Amino acid sequence: MTITAPVETYDFPSRVSSRFDFLRLKDFPLIPALILGCIALVAIFANFLAPHNPEIGSLTARFKPPFWQTGGSTKYLLGTDQLGRDVLSRLIFGARVSMVVGFTAVIFAGTVGTTLGIISGYLGGWVDQVIMRVTDTWLALPGLMFAIFLAAIVGPSMWNIVIILGLVYWTRYARVIRGEVLSLKEREFVRLAIVAGCSKWTIMYRHILPNVINSAIVIGTLMLGVVIITEASLSFLGVGVPPPQAAWGLMLSDGKQSLMVGRWWLSVLPGLCIMLMVLSANILGDWLRVKLDPQLRQL
Amino acid sequence: MKRYIGRRTAYCLLSLFLLSVTIFFFVRVTGDPATLLVEPGASEADIAAMHHQFGLDKPLWMQYGIFMKSLAHGDLGKSFYYRTPVMELYLSRLPNSLYLATVAMVFSLIIGIPSGVLASVRVGRFWDRAGKMFTLLGLSLPSFWVGLVLILIFSVYLGWLPSSGAGTPLHLIMPAFALGWYFAAAHMRLTRSSMLEVLGSEYVKLARLKGLPQVLVIAKHAFKNALIPVLTLAGINLVIMVNVATVVEVVFAWPGIGRLLYEGITFRDFPVVQGVVLMGGAMIVIVNLVVDILYAVIDPRIRLES
Questions:
Q1: In this predicted model, what pLDDT tens digit does every residue of A155-192 receive, in sequence order?
Q2: What angle do CA A20, A22, A24 make, to 5 degrees?
Q3: Interface probe with B: pick from A229, A263, A279, most Cβ of B within 10 Å
Q4: What is the pTM of this model?
Q5: In the list A16, A84, A96, B226, which could disulfide-bond A57, CB 3.0-4.6 Å?
Q6: Cβ(A255)–Cβ(A267) under 8 Å?
Q7: What pLDDT was estimated at residue B38?
């Protein structure tokens, strides 16, 4: 005699709704997203795309203009700089610096800021007081000035810049996340979790964190532009990414020297790249803010 | 009221204390400050002498005590490069920075307020969209790049304006534009949202019900009230402008405190860097306190809440 196990049947929904449903929406800013995607691809495959070595130039080919101007050649499509380095190759490798610094700094600041914001908001009491007073003080210092100060102490290097930007900008996350946690912790599901005997850390990690992650992503996207501009400013001032590495801010600072003789391509092109990237990140961030922020969605 | 002001002042003092600790801490902990002061490759004996001269061989809390004591006397230390007190240097550069920031502020308000009002009156229509594009551009263009492009156009190609230095009002036009550009976007956005809030209020509806012409409702009833938060932000931003103008001042060789900070970095003149940052932070903390108190004086709701 055979025993058949009872077969349970479920009614599966025809399509599982996913977190990425919003990508299908009509007003998705496609062009900015494509631009950011392209810059990311260029950054990843810089080695294959760059026609010349970005750090070694030939001194016989200094200050060549872009190919469409008289004196330019198709060998150096966007011209060369004061050391005869190919501008196009430096722009391509510069994308890598901006992408790496931008994303790691935003993630670093986001992790620190979100963690401290959740702890501050959920635990309350003296922990909250300490974290918020430090946040307030650090927010009082203008980001760029604080970053210049830290960079001047620790010295120029790409990874130092990432740490500095993280230290400067975590406060932006902590402030907002704490505010959200304050209202979340009064909600039913948190109370039930307490009754069920979850520890404080479990509640913060399993129940609070998933509810604030959207806001952290929105702040992160909007911070990306700020972080990239700050990195470029630091490099421009000589306390960011050290030469001869190719970074857009550094190229602008080199280009400034020969601006008065009309070598426009050395300053205009890196700036255009920064603008394209930051503008795309800001448009995308603005759209995400409207999509993910439930308060704005109701408007 | 007194209790409110007392509490705000206490917070402000606490912030100033934390600010000094933060700056002191970062300088001491991230490395030996003596190595920032001596030439690279200095001998052990030189570094030891440096330690003794600046009291770096004393325990940390004692060093902090000495640091705070001289701060209380308005002493920010002595510049290594200029060999003069940092405070003197700072005060000699401050007027230039204030001058630049004021002109940049006027400029940003002239652009920001009318475009914000226009956008709020025409919500969702062409001017609103154009304004939104403008704010996004304002927030996305690095001010030093705007500066470089301005130099390229107006100094190199057209030859209308001097590219660097100070002295005549002509020197001021480009740096003020480059600096004010970013803030114009922020002022426009706040004007727009503040106007929208006021336009939806009861007294504006009443003014409309009375049959007042649209121009009068917007200009007399709505605009005046919407201006309060914008002017508050402008006040705070003026102080922020003084402190974030570094890159613009470097591009245009404008002799303000931003350039002083830059010189401090290039000459490894550490007391100058520390002094400029400390003064900047203190200025902003204090302005925030002043704004809080003024708000409490003007608006009884705030002081009753506490």
A1: 788 888 999 999 899 998 998 899 889 888 888 888 89
A2: 100
A3: A229
A4: 0.83
A5: A84
A6: yes
A7: 66
Nearest residue of A to residue B10, measured between CA atoms: A133
Q: How far apart are CA A167 and CA A278, in angstroms?
A: 21
Residue with tokens 């902990």: B29
Burial per residue of B120-130, b for 16 or more beta-carbon CB atoms within 10 angstroms, e otherwise: bbeeeeebbee
Distance CA B292, CA B286 (A): 10
**Which of the residues A36, A133, A145, A289 would you substitute to probe the B interface, choosing the one with the greatest number of B C-beta atoms within 10 Å?**
A145
Q: Which residues pair with A80 in a beta bridge?
A: A86
Alpha helices in B154-269 (DSSP H): 169-199, 202-209, 214-216, 223-244, 246-251, 257-266
Q: Dihedral (C-alpha) B45, B49, B55, B58: value to the nearest 10 degrees?
A: 30
Phi, psi (deg, nearest 5) at residue B78: -115, 135
Taken in order B138, B180, B194, B288, the sign of the CA dihedral is positive
- B/e letters for B207-228, b = 16+ CB within 10 Å, e = fewer, are beeeeeeeeebbeebbbebbbe
Which residue, among A82, A116, A96, has the nearest Cα to A265 in the 3D structure?
A: A82
Closest by Cα among B90, B83, B94, B85 to B267? B83
β-partners of residue A86 are A80
The interface pTM score, or ipTM, of the predicted complex is 0.82
**What CA–CA distance (Å, rounded) separates A86 from A77?**
8
Q: Which residues of chain B have a CB within 8 Å of the CB of A231?
A: none
Is residue A60 a contact partner of residue A84, using CB atoms and an 8 Å limit?
yes
Least confident of A8-22, B64-78, B119-133, B208-222: A8-22
- Which residue shows structure tokens 């190595």? B35
Interface of B with A in 24-83 (CB under 8 A): 26-27, 30-31, 36
Structural tokens at position B76: 């920010």
Residue B92 neighbours by CB under 8 Å, 6+ apart = none
What 3-state DSSP class applies to A28? coil
Cα gap B253→B147, rounded to integer Å: 11
Question: From CA B130, how far away is CA B134, in angstroms rounded?
Answer: 6
CA–CA distance, B154 with B144 (Å, rounded to integer): 15
Helix, strand, or coil (residue B85) = strand
Residue with tokens 């101007």: A69
Check: CB of residue A92 under 8 Å from CB of residue A42.
yes
A291 or A163, which is more confident = A163
Q: What is the pLDDT of residues B95-108, one digit of tens each?
A: 989 999 999 999 99
Q: Is A83 exposed, middle or buried (0-12, 13-18, 19+ CB in 10 A)?
A: middle
- Please state, in angstroms and rounded to a whole number, the distance separating the CA atoms of residues A97 and A199: 42
Nearest to B244 among A142, A152, A238 (CB): A142
pLDDT of residue A297: 46
Reading the block at residue A98, the tokens are 């901006």
Judge: B284–A142 Cβ closer than 8 Å, yes or no. yes
- Amino acid in position A46: A
Cα torsion B206, B208, B212, B214 to 10°: value is 140
- Give the torsion sign (CA, B94, B293, A135, A281): negative
- Give the pair of three-digit tokens for residue A216: 């952290």
pLDDT category, B293, cuts 50, 70, 90?
A: confident
